Amino acid sequence: MALLLRTLARQGTCLSRPQFGILYRHAVPMGTTANDEMNKFWAKNNKLNRPMSPHLTIYKWSMPMMMSITHRGTGVGLSGGISAFALLALVLPGNYPYYLDLIHSLSIGPALLSLAKFGIAFPVSYHTLNGIRHLFWDSGKGFKIPEVYRSGYVVIVLSILTSIAAIAYMQYALALLSEWYGPNRIKIPSPLNRHPSSLLSFRQTVFAAVNDQNQRRQIVQDPDSRGAYR
């Protein structure tokens, strides 16, 4: 605003001296422009051969720096991955059993499969635990250098342990789903293919299908009960 008033006072654009004489009396002489000052600054730095700042090559990499960068990276990756998964779930044809069979048909080795599971579980665990660490910092505690390193190591160890636990749970869940959607698959109609009257009817259909599957297994194990199942 001050620069605008000084410019108008000197140019006399749309202003008359008798009416706006106060602007002329108090106008500060204009010095160099910002562009001139910037050129002088860079010329001086080039003459003195000063390094540019920030200059990442002059910093020594440390664990807090690595965790700060990876925390932001996992946040971007998780948000993008979840958004992409939700979008693909809406636009791709087929249902869950189809893509489960597709994954099984790839014959992925157990080592590669475990690595893929760890690649999914670790970013979630790490970003969650490191986010709790950042929330703890909001209380004004844990900023001393030894505490920063100690809390960082705790986050890394807990992230690895929780990732392994999540992989074990995922293995159990996939085994259960494979049993459900195996050769004797439960025929569960998709709620998207039904009239969307209520979610309760779909849940009742799921429970009825599971109960029917259990009764079929009981018949196989106990042939004498075949007559009771009509």
TrEMBL record:
Membrane protein topology class: Multi-pass membrane protein
Keyword vocabulary terms for this entry: Heme, Iron, Membrane, Metal-binding, Transmembrane, Transmembrane helix
SUPFAM superfamilies: Fumarate reductase respiratory complex transmembrane subunits
Keyword Transport (UniProt): no
Listed CDD domains: SQR_TypeC_SdhC
GO terms of molecular function: electron transfer activity; metal ion binding
Gene3D superfamilies attached to this UniProt entry: Fumarate reductase/succinate dehydrogenase, transmembrane subunit, Single helix bin
Name used for this protein in its record: Succinate dehydrogenase cytochrome b560 subunit, mitochondrial
Organism of this sequence: Coregonus suidteri
